[in-house]
Design brief:
eight-stranded parallel β-sheet, alpha/beta, 9 helices, 17% strand, TIM Barrel, binds zinc ion, binds D-xylitol-5-phosphate
Length: 245
Amino acid sequence: MSRTRILAELRTSPPAVLPSLLLCDFGNLATEVQALEQAGARALHLDVMDGHFVPNLTYGMPIVEAVRRATELPLDVHLMIARPADYIDAFVDAGASMVTIHAEAVAEPAPVLERIRRRGAVASLAINPPTPLERIAPALPHCDMVLCMSVSPGWGAQKFDPVALEKLRTLKAQYGDGLLLEVDGGVNVDTIADCTAAGAQLLVVGSAIFRNRQQGYAESLSELTALGGEGGRDGFATGKLDPLK
Ligand code: DX5
Ligand code: ZN
């Protein structure tokens, strides 16, 4: 799927819940991916950690490739790695449709984001909870998406930090639907409506889906999507946010 088509598809209502594969059963990866697709996932989120930019270590290109073989869904690859510029081509070649780099990992994000775009992928910049929005202002014209982290990156199942909501609101007020907004970390049935009310259209969810397997993926996704839709409506109804077109 092309970059513009992915952007158009993910901008449509209701907000998209993206399962983060961090806590999935990697021994049955293809089955997990297909189950999530059948359950209604519109894209999948893959967390790449290098044991350096973040203390935890997960996986790299071979797993992205394996997920790509199992589905045609857009793959949202979140690079929590120290030198993302060195790996853009490798991850796009492996099947990434959306590539997120961290503002804290690069001195100048703009050229790396433009490289992602040139490769035909959605270019996204992530910002950690303590990093102020001002830090990424010069790079915003080069972003298709901004990922506001609501936990310190590294592990799943952490507590949601509302500092992300403030950033989402500010970006939504400034850019309307010209910028896709994503939130990642601690998103669950209690926090998802606040995220969409603040302007997030993409909601990354790990533990609330995978530590709640008995509910079933389809049921979890539809419950989260419905709650997220409520938040989006509240936000638009109050006139705080520009409605998505
Ligand atoms: C955190 C990762 C997240 C994480 C989300 O470093 O970027 O994608 O897996 O998991 P939950 O939803 O459990 O916070
Ligand atoms: Zn992530």
